[in-house]
Specification:
This protein is α+β, with helices and mostly antiparallel strands and 485 residues long. The protein is built from 13 helices and 22 strands. Strand 19 and strand 20 form a beta hairpin. The longest helix is centred in the C-terminal third of the chain and has 19 residues. About 9% of the residues have low confidence.
Length: 485
């Protein structure tokens, strides 16, 4: 996620002290297509897709325990969604293949209260359910480590949920309807449940299939590879497949009037830009994406997914949504440095994901470090003095929101989880030297590919790669009340 614009404005004075310049700121439902996942009568889950890659170890989140359910290991979400902008009505037909982590007479998912469930089937048979608040409880026996298939039909007008932060660029999380009745989503640390039934916690990564229906000439957009687009003159139906598992906060969805532009990244990676009609002036910035990928690959290795893209929406923020970055329609969110930041998350955050929100610094610190490296190079300023310009701001944010690995839960995603670990990584680089440091940084996403993990595993990996005891170093930077000297 990009840091909010008002925080960046506060940094301008700090940057000017070092001769740097701050970033410049801007002011009738269609009939759903058939689900892409065959029913259990047509094929077994393993015959549909190889779901082993999506096996996870779900946990109860220590920061936001009300979201997610450790008893469910989601493997594949197949979402057939229809948006009617005339009535602001979302109609959903969902198939979830999951593994129960324990034997139980019922299980729970997250689903926003404005959505009304009309039917639920477990392994093809109707089952009773209750839906109170965001908790969808399905009554049906599940056995530990066995796979089940849940089908859910629902409809309603989704509403975003409040973000646990003081940031002004996150007024709500999840499904958002703009003044023109177009739709976009951003949902970190939670909020995917505002538009589908989900285990909304980062430890549970899953594969996705989307079938999106919207009145023509609008288009539905999601993560992954677009596998079809059919416009019959009345309804546009698009399908997407996400072939590597993603946490729910990394999923994106949009319905609106978009212009598509294709590009190519290093190694021939196909890149797609989706820009709202009338905002084509954003394209020159977006088209720096291949250069940003090349910059990151020099340190992190090849881009870890088969496709890339950017979706521009009516927001002030930005999100590293997997393979299809979601950026606000403003100069800062679409700036090249922001694109570097969100692309860096594809190694740190998407390829390997924190299993608990206490470790969001694992994502944001590394992405911010590469953003600052890019900015220093772009400004023509040596990295050391450039980073020194952020130390006072980092100390201020640490004091206000807490240490990056023990932050105030009401101040999610604030400057402490961006700049504190970014400065930490630079201090570690100076301690270890470039060769060892970048060998560790490049290796971690490879050894934990497509998994969610915790800080203990990450820090143990860094210590092993460095050959040093770094406990005191990490404790001071991640848990200390003041910035290390």
């Amino acid at each position: 996620m990009t840091l909010r614009r008002d925080l960046l404005a506060l940094m301008a004075a700090c940057l000017l002290l070092t001769g740097c310049s701050a970033p410049v700121l801007d002011d009738a439902p269609a009939t759903p297509a058939s689900p892409t996942t065959p029913t259990t009568e047509e094929a077994t889950p393993d015959q549909v897709r190889d779901l082993g890659i999506a096996l996870s170890d779900p946990v109860e989140d220590s920061v936001y325990p009300e979201a997610g359910e450790p008893g469910v290991d989601a493997l594949l979400y197949s979402l057939n969604l229809t948006w009617d902008p005339d009535d602001d009505l979302l109609t959903g037909s969902q198939t979830l293949i999951f593994r129960a982590t324990e034997s139980a007479p019922s299980f729970q998912l997250d689903l926003g209260a404005p959505l009304e469930v009309s039917a639920a089937l477990l392994d093809g048979l109707p089952v009773p359910f209750t839906h109170r608040g965001k908790d969808l409880v399905v009554d049906g026996d599940v056995l530990a480590d066995e796979r089940s298939v849940l089908d859910v039909e629902y409809a309603g007008t989704p509403e975003p949920v409040e973000a646990p932060t003081t940031r002004t660029d996150m007024p709500g999380l999840g499904f958002t309807i703009d003044d023109d009745h177009q739709v976009w989503t951003m949902q970190e640390p939670f909020g995917a449940y505002t538009w589908y039934a989900v285990n909304d916690q980062p430890a549970d990564k899953a594969l996705y299939e989307f079938t999106l229906n919207v009145p023509s000439p609008w288009t539905g957009i999601a993560n992954g590879t677009q596998t079809s687009l059919i416009d019959d003159g009345t309804t546009t139906t698009t399908t997407y497949t996400l072939d590597e598992p993603a946490a729910s906060y990394l999923v994106t969805l949009a319905f609106g009037d978009y212009v598509r532009t294709d590009d190519e990244g290093p190694g021939g990676v196909p890149i797609t830009y989706w820009v709202p009609r009338g905002s084509e002036n954003r394209l020159p910035n977006l088209q720096t994406t291949p250069a940003a990928m090349t910059f990151l690959e020099e340190s992190l290795g090849p881009y870890p997914f088969e496709t890339a893209g950017i979706l521009v929406v009516d927001s002030d923020s930005g999100m590293e949504t997997q393979t299809m970055i979601t950026l606000g329609d403003n100069r800062y969110s679409t700036a090249p440095a922001t694109i570097v930041h969100e692309l860096a998350h594809h190694w740190y955050g998407n390829q390997v994901t924190p299993s608990d929100w206490s470790d969001v610094w694992m994502n944001e610190g590394m992405a911010m470090y590469f953003q600052l490296m890019w900015q220093a190079e772009d400004e023509g300023i040596a990295l050391d003095p450039y980073l020194d310009g952020f130390r006072a701001y980092e100390a201020e944010q640490r004091e206000a929101a807490g240490p990056p690995a023990d932050y105030d839960p009401a101040r999610f995603g604030e400057g402490n989880v961006y700049y504190s670990p970014a400065l930490m990584w630079h201090a570690l680089r100076e301690l270890l030297g470039d060769e060892t440091f970048f060998e560790i940084v490049r290796g971690w996403p490879l050894v934990r590919d497509n998994t969610s993990t915790d800080r203990e595993a990450f820090l143990a990996y860094v210590e092993e790669g460095s050959g040093q005891d770094l406990d005191a170093f990490f404790d001071a930077w991640l848990l200390g009340e003041t910035t290390p000297g």
